[in-house]
Design a protein that fits this description.
Blueprint: E1 4-9, E2 12-17, H1 23-28, H2 33-39, H3 52-93, H4 99-108, H5 112-116, H6 126-140
Antiparallel strand pairs: 1-2
């Protein structure tokens, strides 16, 4: 994914890896800067050249990204379908219990310990009583706005 540039040094021309793709190359490949950033494509704003090899490289990257996205969606749909089939098969295996059977099961689940204990009235927790007192105190004592202090008055001297 390294874009290439041509360097000229004396009489030699050489191709080397560049720091990133130029904005012109992004325009040629119809890629916005935001999309390039989200894909992890490095940009080099200092470069102004447009190389066809870099443009084709960008287009290949986009095509691979689109194909991978479609593949992920297809895999997700397959997984959803498999889960739905499992749920359907489990529902088909377990017949729904009738209302009478459900009541009998509920009655048999009652523990004898709870039936033996007498029902006693419990006092409200202390937290609730303190919360009630706090709310009453707030209602009784409203906050007063802070009074402004008056500036000291200057005495007028009568000239006679």
């Amino acid at each position: 994914m390294n874009p290439k540039i041509i360097t000229h040094n004396k009489n030699l021309t050489k191709e080397r890896n560049s720091r990133g793709f130029s904005l012109g190359e992004l325009r040629e490949a119809n890629v916005s800067v935001n999309r390039a950033n989200s894909l992890g494509i490095i940009l080099d704003f200092r470069r102004g050249t447009v190389r066809e090899t870099n443009v084709t490289l960008l287009k290949d990257i986009l095509n691979k990204n689109v194909e991978a996205k479609k593949q992920r969606k297809a895999d997700a749909q397959k997984q959803i379908g498999e889960v739905k089939e499992k749920v359907k098969s489990e529902k088909a295996k377990k017949p729904a219990p009738k209302k009478e059977e459900a009541k009998e099961e509920a009655e048999s689940e009652v523990k004898p310990e709870k039936a033996k204990k007498p029902a006693a009235k419990k006092a409200a927790p202390k937290k609730k009583t303190t919360e009630v007192k706090k709310t009453e105190a707030k209602e009784v004592k409203p906050k007063k706005p802070a009074a402004k202090k008056a500036a000291p008055k200057k005495e007028k001297v009568n000239k006679e």
